[in-house]
Amino acid sequence: MARVVVTGGVGFIGYHLTRALLARGDDVVVVDDFSDAPYPAARKRRNEADLVREFPSLRVVHGCVTDRAALEPLCAGATLVVHLAALAGVRPSFAAPARYARVNVEGTATAFELAREAGCTRFVFASSSSVYGNSTPLPAHEDAPAVQPESPYAASKRGSELIASSLCRRAPETTCAALRFFTVYGPRQRPEMAITRFARAILAGRPITVFGDGSMRRDFTHVDDIVRGVLAAAERAPAGFRPYNLGSGSPVDLHTLVKMLGEAAGIAPVVERAPQPVGDVDATFADVARARAELGWEPRVTLREGLETVVRWVRDNP
Ligand SMILES: NC(=O)c1ccc[n+]([C@@H]2O[C@H](COP(=O)([O-])OP(=O)(O)OC[C@H]3O[C@@H](n4cnc5c(N)ncnc54)[C@H](O)[C@@H]3O)[C@@H](O)[C@H]2O)c1
Known about the structure:
- It is globular, with a radius of gyration of 19 Å.
- It is of the alpha/beta class.
- Helices cover 41% and strands 18% of the residues.
- The strands form 4 sheets. The chain has a 7-stranded parallel sheet with strand order 3-2-1-4-5-6-11, sandwiched between helices.
- Strand 1, helix 1 (12-23) and strand 2 form a beta-alpha-beta unit.
- It has one domain: NAD(P)-binding Rossmann-like Domain (Rossmann fold).
- It contains 10 helices and 13 strands.
């Protein structure tokens, strides 16, 4: 039985990952600060309550990932640390760049350092497709330089990678996989993210606001594929620092997304336009050859199937 620490384990992706770890019999401790950023803590409390109801053995600790004293005892005996805690979201990062830097960069450095000190040699953490910015040729490959982040959030994720890779050079026996998630969606998605926002509006008969001219492309990736990718990296990633793209590898533009979401809901969407926000990249598109070859990972959930899971979730949870 693995002993796993999951930071950010009651967030959107954290909920699904924690559930998968518990379902296979792992001993899991979640650390989360239950903050109201970037969305109300009530959703995190609900995720916690649902997890604990299903798996009463789960331990959830309220704490901040930059707090060494809180984190240190939890890492003792851990065989795997999955670090998901972060301030997520491109747009809000412009209003709080210092906070993003502290939580995301210092949080990653702290979690990695404590995992190492506790003798845990497997560390997997959430990076982001946003590290590629607008200047990386698509499909984006992990060896691209990724030196022009378009937002403080993207910079904080790239900064986290660089800190982790520098620490890893001094501890080459440690596995440190930086998983670059591409726009993740599914049940319990963060409420401010496009697919869930759109689904709620369509089902309530409200117009949806699409940013830009609708040509923005995203490599939408279902959370079930992300969870399988995290588990595969935890098991198979080699020693040393290694980034992996976890994306569907099939980007669609927002026009197509809205049309498909309307089809999944059985309701024709009404669209309003708003200017494209600062910091949003034009397109994301993952080259997933490395994850396929080294982790044996493959995205499996089609966008059509995935959107149906969101529509069902939103219908059942108005
Ligand atoms: N959802 C996506 O599309 C996406 C894409 C790329 C990367 N990511 C990354 O994946 C991870 C999970 O994202 P998510 O969408 O589930 O977001 P989320 O906000 O639902 O989850 C993050 C969790 O971290 C917790 N957290 C925040 N600051 C903390 C702190 N200081 N100490 C302890 N816990 C803290 C939050 O309370 C939350 O529960 C994040 O690192 C995010 O940047 C997500």
